[in-house]
User: Fold this.
Amino acid sequence: MHRTDVNTDLSSTLASDEAERKPSNEAGTWRLGEQAVNRIGFGTKRLGSDAGQAIALLRQAVALGVNHLDTAAFYPSVGRAGEQHGYDSLEWANDAVRRALAPYSDDLTIATKVGPTEHGLARPDQLRALVEHDLRQLGLETLDLVYLRQHGLDSVAEHFGVLAELRAAGLIKNLGLSNVRLEHLAQAQEIAPVTAVQNRYGVGFGRVNDTMLETCGAQGIAFVPFFAVTATGREQGGVVHSDPVDTIARAHNATPAQIRIAWTLAKGPHVLAIPGTGNPTHLTENLAAGTIHLSPTDLTTLDAIPSE
Ligand SMILES: NC(=O)c1ccc[n+]([C@@H]2O[C@H](COP(=O)([O-])OP(=O)(O)OC[C@H]3O[C@@H](n4cnc5c(N)ncnc54)[C@H](OP(=O)(O)O)[C@@H]3O)[C@@H](O)[C@H]2O)c1
Assistant:
């Protein structure tokens, strides 16, 4: 399905002025492998459990210029209560992505991650099945970008080696790493190129990853922060309160969520935002964060907020 087809399913507001409104473009682009993506993308973790709403939101995101979706076979992590309530329940985010957007526009990059299972981190020999599961759920023959989402490994070499083999076999175009330290990046780069690193990072949050962000920038690797809006809210979500963020938001006639996204984007052209939301108003707001230009004083104030 091409973008024009997607639009036929959207509200008249979106369809009528789609040509002028591409707020996801405002922050510029970054190349993920062969594909240039707008720096503000969309994370599917917060889609909720109503399939209709999730599909509408994904189509809205694409209509507003999102061409980088971050998803996983194990999202959403929030309640799957639809069956109890009798409505069309969202089983997993990847199903919603396929139902909303397949066949996909050529300019859409869908990033997935493998590693977590209900029994802990997958063994290397289980990764192929997880990649094939993603391919089936998303209705694709090749995955654009697959992160190894690790937890607790001293070395990622064995796991990453399996993904590199799957890349060589044509199942994956680009490889990434998530929840990693610098030594993990170096181990992986011995095996295959790393296109993106996805770690926790935000205002007053995850600043332990400052060096990783800089290293990625120096090497032309995308740095993709997660929990950039919710920060210490982590799995629970919401926008964590901060007085300095609120003050700067008021000065820019913006929301705290927008300031948090704008701050990550100001960290370098290789930083890609993937805010997650189940709310259409929040989606529009997040995509407009690319129009906010934080002053050097704003940045110094936000940089100085102690990190957890
Ligand atoms: N690699 C990993 O280990 C990992 C871990 C977590 C997430 N991720 C990825 O990163 C993406 C981003 O992380 P995330 O979704 O967990 O957290 P996030 O984007 O930092 O924040 C999402 C939370 O903030 C709220 N929110 C978003 N925009 C808002 C706005 N404009 N105003 C008010 N509230 C707003 C959302 O609630 P509403 O729904 O009410 O807007 C939700 O509770 C995920 O979607 C996922 O793709 C990766």
